[in-house]
From TrEMBL:
<dbReference type="InterPro" id="IPR003439">
    <property type="entry name" value="ABC_transporter-like_ATP-bd"/>
</dbReference>
<protein>
    <submittedName>
        <fullName>ABC transporter ATP-binding protein</fullName>
    </submittedName>
</protein>
<dbReference type="InterPro" id="IPR027417">
    <property type="entry name" value="P-loop_NTPase"/>
</dbReference>
<dbReference type="GO" id="GO:0005524">
    <property type="term" value="F:ATP binding"/>
</dbReference>
<dbReference type="InterPro" id="IPR008995">
    <property type="entry name" value="Mo/tungstate-bd_C_term_dom"/>
</dbReference>
<keyword id="KW-0410">Iron transport</keyword>
<dbReference type="Pfam" id="PF00005">
    <property type="entry name" value="ABC_tran"/>
</dbReference>
<dbReference type="InterPro" id="IPR050093">
    <property type="entry name" value="ABC_SmlMolc_Importer"/>
</dbReference>
<dbReference type="InterPro" id="IPR013611">
    <property type="entry name" value="Transp-assoc_OB_typ2"/>
</dbReference>
<dbReference type="GO" id="GO:0015408">
    <property type="term" value="F:ABC-type ferric iron transporter activity"/>
</dbReference>
<keyword id="KW-0547">Nucleotide-binding</keyword>
<keyword id="KW-0472">Membrane</keyword>
<keyword id="KW-0406">Ion transport</keyword>
<dbReference type="GO" id="GO:0016887">
    <property type="term" value="F:ATP hydrolysis activity"/>
</dbReference>
<dbReference type="Pfam" id="PF08402">
    <property type="entry name" value="TOBE_2"/>
</dbReference>
<keyword id="KW-0408">Iron</keyword>
<dbReference type="InterPro" id="IPR015853">
    <property type="entry name" value="ABC_transpr_FbpC"/>
</dbReference>
Length: 452
């Protein structure tokens, strides 16, 4: 086998000097969508040619995005790429230089149009929950719901029994307020926490108020906080506070839910559990949602569609599988997961590289190049396998390092040419340092033009 250039192994999530990154001018500002033509996605939320600047600094540059109704879309990118600015512009919290934003057929941002945030029909879930400290859990949830003039705070009327509105949402009665002033130890085991959400019939003269209380009770139960409606925010854990923030955003039944890195401040175990629950809840409520994150695992595991941003532009929009398995360029590939990069040459649908002659998919914008053209060969570590001696597309290798992760490991192998590649190997199949093995490739390699 002829000698090839040096191999580059990139780890997920970092922008590395020396790695081939997509220049801003490469292939223009085009965004590769997973569906087009007859299968083009129909946008419930439509963002067209949106540009936003802070002074003389352009933060969003001609961003376009179509979000299907009922979908959960993750906007993924490194810090400073413009993803939170995009969310704030959609929410109406920032003026835009140019472009339009339409939600459900309603123009909310456009030439001469800047609908106020509270009139856009959107719910907002911030990173730090931002609950009102002087209000209970129930009152925080119901903050954005309409109130009756006569009984604005949902107090029980004089002489009203616990079977009235106060029985429906005990946490919003005068007694509930008094309980919040006591220490948590005094509240433990009280009747207020034993069964605070007993539903009662809606009386004709109190229908609007009771309907509001019923909505609060429904959401408190939905987010698993039915027994905590009397609690003050200071008595909640971080995960519970985020549940309240989500319920508050859902309360008025908005057309769009916007979540700005809502799990970033939580510990890893809680973050993993809560984000799964939140995604299931949003889908169960048939909400259209946009979540901003810089966590690749979060975006790929939760979202129906992922928009990858860099430098104020959206580089790729598609399903998690599209973005991970067919990244539009090497930078996107390296940002959403681990990669193995090799120099190679294109020859009639295959690439010749340090791993041999591999079937490959051409990922350039133009048609496939002429035979012999130098290309960048990209693989995912899990596409490399410990092959049996009789399989094709194999090359000898020596195990040099193991980065153990419990369920699997990234194993480094030295190739005959002196290069190193890494494969993701399940824990039961891990080799030992120094073992001589044969590597195979189970999936077509991706070939990109040099400088992509």
């Amino acid at each position: 086998m002829e000698s090839h250039g040096p191999v580059r192994v990139r780890r997920c999530g970092a922008i590395r000097g020396g790695a081939r990154a997509r220049g801003d001018g490469a292939r223009g500002a085009a965004v590769r969508h997973s569906r087009h033509g007859k299968g083009e996605l129909v946008g419930w939320v439509t963002i067209e040619a949106l540009s936003v600047s802070y002074g003389d600094t352009r933060v969003l540059d001609d961003v376009s995005l179509h979000i299907p109704r009922g979908s959960l879309v993750a906007v993924l990118g490194p810090s400073g790429c413009g993803k939170t600015t995009l969310l704030r512009a959609v929410a109406g919290l920032l003026p835009v230089d140019s472009g339009t934003i339409t939600v459900g057929g309603r123009l909310v941002t456009g030439p001469g149009v800047l609908r106020a945030p509270e009139k856009r029909g959107m719910g907002w879930v911030p990173q730090d929950a931002s609950l009102f400290p002087h209000l209970s859990v129930g009152e925080n949830i119901g903050f954005g719901l309409p109130r009756t003039k006569q009984n604005d705070d949902l107090y029980c009327e004089p002489g009203e029994t616990s079977g009235g509105v106060g029985g429906l949402l005990a946490g919003l009665t005068r007694r509930g307020r008094a309980n919040r002033a006591r220490p948590v130890s005094v509240l433990a085991g009280t009747a207020a926490h034993a069964n605070p959400l007993t539903a009662v019939p809606i009386s004709p003269d109190r229908g609007r108020q009771t309907s509001r209380a019923a909505r609060i009770a429904e959401l408190a139960t939905l987010v698993g906080l039915a027994e905590l409606v009397d609690r003050a925010p200071s008595q909640l854990s971080g995960g519970q506070a985020q549940r309240v923030s989500l319920a508050r955003a859902l309360a008025p039944r908005p057309d769009l839910i916007l979540l700005d890195e809502p799990f970033a401040a939580l510990d890893p175990l809680l973050r993993s559990a809560l984000r799964t629950e939140v995604a299931a809840l949003l889908r169960g409520q048939h909400n259209t949602s946009v979540i901003v994150t810089h966590d690749q695992e979060e975006a790929l595991s939760l979202a129906d569609f992922v928009a990858v941003m860099r430098g104020g532009k959206i580089l790729q929009f598609g399903t998690p599988a599209d973005v991970y398995e067919r990244p539009v360029d090497p930078w996107v590939a390296g940002f959403v997961g681990d990669t193995v990069e090799l120099d190679g040459q294109w020859r009639d649908g295959q690439v010749e590289c340090a791993l041999g002659s591999l079937p490959a998919d051409w990922m350039g914008a133009a048609s496939a190049p002429a035979d012999g053209t130098p290309v960048l060969v990209l693989l995912r570590p899990e596409w490399l396998t410990l092959a049996l001696p009789s399989t094709e597309r194999q090359t000898g290798a020596v195990t040099t390092a193991i980065a153990y992760a419990g369920h699997d490991a990234l194993v480094s192998f030295a190739l005959p040419a002196g290069l190193t590649v890494r494969a993701r190997v399940a824990a039961p199949d891990l080799p030992r340092i120094g073992d001589r093995l044969t590597l195979g490739v189970r999936q077509n390699a991706l070939a990109y033009p040099l400088g992509a």
